[in-house]
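WARN retry 2 of 3 for item q-0093 after timeout on previous attempt; input resubmitted unchanged.
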Amino acid sequence: MHPLPKLLALAALLAASAARADPGYYVVTAYDNEGLRAVDLRYWSVKREGRPERIWPEVGFSYGVTSRWTTGLLYSLIGPSNWDVEPSSLNWQNDVLLTQGEWPFDLALHTNLIRQIGDVGGGSRYALEYGPVLQTDVGRTQINTNLFFERSLDGGEDAKPIQLKYQWQVRYRWKPLMDFGLQGFGELGRWDRWADGGQQSHRAGPALFGHLDLGKGSDSRNALLYQAAYLLGTVYAKRGSMFTLRVQYTF
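OK item q-0093 returned
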C-alpha cells in the first residue's frame, strides 16, 4: 500500500483521562482473519507518581467470521498484584474491514461493548467504544492511527459525556521473531470540547513484536504471536508509566 499524507500527518500530531482506562491498551489493527481463531493472553500495568502500581491481567478468544468481520470476547481482572485481583470487565469486540486493498490504506470500524462487573464506584456499568481504524504501509513499515469514542450506555443525569481517545503505532518489519517500533495512547476528554492540556493524558514508548510458526506448511494457521511495550508520559492526567504484554495463540 502507498502512504496516505493525511494519515501520516494525523499520526505525527497524536504523539485525557478516562474513568478507568479499561480494558487494556493494545493497538487495534486491520486484517483479514477469516476462519482464524485466537486465544489471547494480556497483561498490563500502570504506575503513577505517588500511587501504588495497578495491574490488569486479561484473557480472550476471537474468531474471524468472514474476511471482513472479526469478533471476540475479553475478560479483564484488576488488582494491586498478581495474587490480589478481582473481576473488572467483560468486553465484546467487533472489527469490520470496510476496505480490502482498493484504497492506499485499510479502513475498519472498531466497536467494543464494555460491561463493568467489578466495583465501579457508582460509575457507568455499560459503555460502548467505537471509531475508525486506519492502517497503511510505507515499505517495510506499518503505520496505524485509531480514533475511538467512548459513550456511557447507562443514561440518566450522571451519564458521562462521550470521551475521545487515540492510538498510534509505527512497526518496522525486521525479522519474523522480532519487529520493533513505537506505540502511543491518550485520552483527550470530551469529544466536542477537549480537556485542558493538564487534564489530558498522553504516553508513548518503544514496542517489540514477533511471531513463531508452530505448524507445517506455508498456509498453517498455528502460530504464537507476541507484543510488548513500555510507555512513559501521563496516565489519568498524572505522570506515570505503563507496561503491556500480549501473547496470542492462533489456529
